[in-house]
Amino acid sequence: MLTSSLSQLGAALRSKKISSVELTQLYLKRIAALNPELNAYITVNEELSLQQARAADTQLALSHTHALTGIPIAQKDIFCAKGWRTTCGSKMLSNFIAPYDAHVIEQFNRAGAVNLGKTNMDEFAMGSSNETSFFGKVKNPWNRNSVPGGSSGGSAAAISARMCAAATGTDTGGSIRQPAALCGISGLKPTYGVISRYGMVAFASSLDQAGPMARSAEDLSLLLNAMAGFDARDSTSLQREPEDYTRNLNTPLNGLRIGLPKEFFTEGVHSDVANAIESAIAEYKKLGARIVDIHLPNSSLSVPVYYVLAPAEASSNLSRFDGVRYGYRASGYANLAEMYEKSRAQGFGAEVKRRIMIGTYVLSHGYYDAYYLQAQKIRRLIAQDFVEAFKQCDVIMGPTTPTTAFNLGEKNDDPVQMYLSDIYTIAVNLAGLPGMSIPAGFSNNGLPIGLQIIGNYFEEARMLNVAHQYQQVADWHTRSPQHIEV
Amino acid sequence: MLLSIDDVFKIARLARLGLTEDEAQIAHSQLSSIFGLIAEMQAVDTHGIEPMSHAQDISQRLREDTVTETNQRELFQSAAPQVKNGLYLVPQVIE
Q1: Which domain holds residue B24?
Q2: In the annotation, is A175 catalytic?
Q3: Distance of residue B52 Cα from the nearest chain A Cα, in angstroms
Q4: Local structure of A449: helix, strand or coil
């Protein structure tokens, strides 16, 4: 069961080979065994999970089913789920029981999926290593001394260690794709606006986008079918006809034009990563694809631009945490201002405070034009590079990250080095494009390597097709970490 | 642009973040290196470029001005640090 795809699990559930309760218990047992070491989950609630599993079994008995009915799925702890503790990896929300469901959670509930638990993450999704979580770091299942990536590191680690059938993530600057690459799994960040942000704790609202994380592209397409859709409660949710994201999976890749941006293949890329990406591209050529050299001249500016815009939006979004309506309140204060300052000083971790301060500064009087406005202008230049590039190619490929998983603690004291680990993923968020990462090999020391696939707006089905066809001829996505029994 | 320790305290005050002297020292050095990274932007000629505030160039959707929420005060206030008679309690602000 632990190696089955979502469609295989669905078939086993519908043919009564296994019940949802049994499958949920199987995963809960694995979580109990592996989580003390890996720390992939912040909250597990057997009672709530099994309640949903029993309801799913009733639906299955009546044959009222969806592709995901009865399947246990882990939810990143950024999504509000009614009755579940929803912490966003922060002390600020460590006791927050969500009073309502996020749209994503509603969609999974409607499909009859089981919420298996809330996965660990960098605090307020701010981080690239999962080390900023108030609930402790997550370990990479492939090497316990390495980071799993972030911010959706708990979800990525849980999938790679087979502690869930699939999971959700969110991606503001690479937070689905980078941990997917570092943990050897598949992850997709859709076009901005495809999945509702309602009930998803806000970090940088013009960049935040939820997406599925799983072992294969086929699994991702089933999850995206459930997650996508218009929601009036998110003012940036896009009104579009529903799509079946599985529809193109089996289309041959003859004539596919793959754009390779020279800016993604510089000396900054580790040789093991470069070699794996080259081999994957060679495989695509065998599948009938054609290579086109493209340029993204402004992409090198995406990290500085992002570290103006994302903190600016975060400083505004996180002003709601004031110790009044919900969240942490410090004890011992003389007046209202001191209550705010103490609650926020004690409730937020160092990285979150850093970003709030950057954002406050770039938005402050006298600096707005030089920083915030300049960053928004360069954001347009970065987006226009992609518009030009997609005139010549169907998808863009490159490494998801410059290196494999780095060591726990390695970049903790140097925020700039940490920020640069997202150098290939951030431009995609700035442009609002869909991007994904799929496993494409291993380094000499046995750590996973991710291939990034970037598509044009709303080309998710095409990207999933491109990824799925590769996964028919490569088996990287089926590998599981040594020392973890499956 | 060089950031001073006073700037760091000023930013923290604007953001309502209490900061000790030690924390301010660390924040000063880290923020300075981050602003060093951000400074790369200044060399770019953006004359005549329209700022991009959002991923999709679409206008804000409007809806009918009707009531869509129901009153769930008790449920929502159950998450509050301090409430009394349906009101959020904060330190006195008017003498």
Answers
A1: 5-43
A2: yes
A3: 5
A4: strand
**DSSP output for A266-292:** STTS-HHHHHHHHHHHHHHHHTT-EEE
pLDDT tens for A84-117 read: 999 999 999 999 999 999 999 999 999 999 999 9
Tell me whether residue A235 is one of the annotated catalytic residues: no
Q: What is the mean pLDDT of chain A?
A: 97
Nearest chain A CA: its distance from B31 CA (Å): 7
For tokens 């008790």, name the residue: B74
Taken in order of first residue, the domains within chain A and their CATH numbers are: 6-256 (3.90.1300.10), 300-378 (no CATH)
pLDDT, position B1: 57
Instruction: Give, in order, the Cα–Cα distances in Å from A440 to each of A119, A144, A381.
Output: 25, 21, 30
**pLDDT on residue A224:** 98
> Residue B17 falls within a domain, yes or no?
yes
Whole-angstrom distance, CA of residue B33 vs CA of residue A331? 34
Which CATH number covers residue B13?
1.10.20
Q: Is A26 exposed, middle or buried (0-12, 13-18, 19+ CB in 10 A)?
A: middle
- Pairing of β A166-171 and β A72-76: parallel
Q: How many CB pairs under 8 A join A and B?
A: 164
Round to the nearest angstrom and report the end-to-end CA distance of chain A.
9
- Tell me if B82 is assigned to some domain: no
Shortest Cα distance, chain A CAs vs residue B16, angstroms: 5
pLDDT band at B95 (very low <50, low <70, confident <90, very high): confident
Residue B22 included in any domain: yes
How far apart, in whole angstroms, are the C-alpha atoms of residue A420 and residue A426?
10
Share of chain A above pLDDT 90, in %: 95
Cβ <8 Å between B88 and A324:
yes
Contact criterion met (CB < 8 Å) for A373 and B51? yes
Residue B14 covered by a domain: yes
Taking only the tens place, the pLDDT of each residue in A326-360 is 999 999 999 999 999 999 999 999 999 999 999 99
Q: How many independent structural domains does chain B possess?
A: 1
In chain A, the residue whose alpha carbon lies closest to the alpha carbon of B37 is: A304
Q: Which residues of chain A have pLDDT under 70?
A: none
Q: Is the pLDDT of residue B2 over 80?
A: no
Tell me what pLDDT residue A483 has. 74
Strand A435-442 vs strand A186-189: parallel, antiparallel, or unpaired?
antiparallel
The answer to whether the CB of A72 falls within 8 A of the CB of A165 is yes
**How does pLDDT run across B35-64, given as a tens digit for each residue?**
999 999 999 999 999 999 888 877 888 888
How far apart are the C-alpha atoms of A326 and A329, rounded to whole Å? Answer: 8
Q: Which residues of B touch A432 (CB under 8 A)?
A: 54-56
**Is A304 in Cβ contact with B51 (below 8 Å)?**
no
* ipTM, interface predicted TM-score of the complex: 0.95
